[in-house]
Amino acid sequence: MASTRGEFSSRFGFIMAAAGSAVGLGNIWGFPTQAASNGGAAFLLIYLILAFTLAYPALMAELIIGRHAHANAVSALRQISPNATLRRIGAGTGIIGFIVASFILSFYAIVAGWMMAYCLAAIADLFQLTGLSQWLTGFGLERNILFMLTFMALTVGIISEGVQAGIERWSSRLMPLLLVSLVLLVAYVLTLDGAMDGLRVYLLPDFDRALSPGLIVKALGAAFFSLSLGVGTMLIYGSYINDRENLPVVGGLVTLVDISIAVLAGFLVLPAMYVALHNGVEIFTATGDLISEDTLIFTVLPALFTSMGLAGVVVSCVFFFLMSIAALTSSISMLEVPVAYTIEQHGVTRKRAVVVIGLVIALFSTIILINFDSLFGLVVAITTRYSQPLLGFMFCFYAGWVWRRDQLLQELRRGNENVEHTLFWKIWPWYVRLVCPLIILVIFVQSLFGSS
């Protein structure tokens, strides 16, 4: 079945695709400011610990189920269910998962379109096209729809080519480009006046703030969402892995790449903020807190780039190009979730499924843009704060409680015949059964009631 569906041709291709799915806009703009606002290095340390104690086990649940079934989430959860009731619940979970993934992509495409517009605005500034630059950076409905559609067209174009020629090929190109761009930007920003102040905020711990219960829960949430869990993207990518791969190893590598890029982004964003402060750009609110992520990206950093003259134009172009790549590598995995379901459950050709689903998502993005004030925040909250944790809970429930232990072990033996003697097998089965669901529920409760 795997060969007719498509399959990643190499471990590198899978790691780049899966890490690309996980590395999104939140890693690059959200994580660094969360760390800075919540105890600096202490938050960073807690995040790193939790990423491997929560995110990695939950990631493995999706990868193992996906590789076992070589199918979409609906079929996969049905396959491992022992009775009709659990099969129906599993199918419902899979359906909700691809609906949530589609809604996430609908607002993600809007934000990604802004990134592309700001990248082109920097090029317009380079050629002194002031009017064009102002239009590209203005919050106009025409601009928003145009660049949302452009971003969706890029996503559709990649997905329509399939697993190897589309997802793997482009992820293997874009992810190294993202990493190189990020390293070059970090190296440059660290040479600027004020950068060391931002570095101290990022790396010096404030344990009193970071060890408060509320902030630990925030770190839990950051670790969980960092790996794009809960909507079936990793399950789908897992279904394209060949049976010879050692899943605990490749899952660990994906987690390591994702976390490394998030941490590296901190070495860019926090120093850049304090460079902006040094140049007279305000980065604090009236209450003394760091500004929110969206204000940072679309107000503070552009003001910083403007103050840097010609070098700032180049840095601005590279930075927003970097953000556009991060968005694209995530969006292709989101679109693949409903596409895989449609192809396998309804026998539709890939190109037709991609185009139709892409158009439906683009239409909903347009509706959000027309009713931006009332819909944008609502869709973000429903999908990321509420739906993702509950879906992640269900994947852990099926891996830990529904799937028979001997079948799970047999699946893992495909890539490592001695896996039952490893530390992974001694810890992971009971961990994903008891600890992960409990932690995910804590995140969900916190998202409902908040935490100080």
TrEMBL record:
It is found in: Membrane. SUPFAM superfamilies: SNF-like. It is a multi-pass membrane protein. GO terms for cellular component: membrane. The chain crosses the membrane at residues 12-29, 41-59, 95-124, 144-163, 175-195, 215-237, 249-276, 296-322, 353-380, 386-403, 430-449. It comes from the Bacteria. InterPro entries: Na/ntran_symport, SNS_sf, YocR/YhdH-like. Keywords: Membrane, Transmembrane, Transmembrane helix, Transport. It holds the Pfam family SNF. This is Sodium-dependent transporter. It comes from Kineobactrum sediminis.
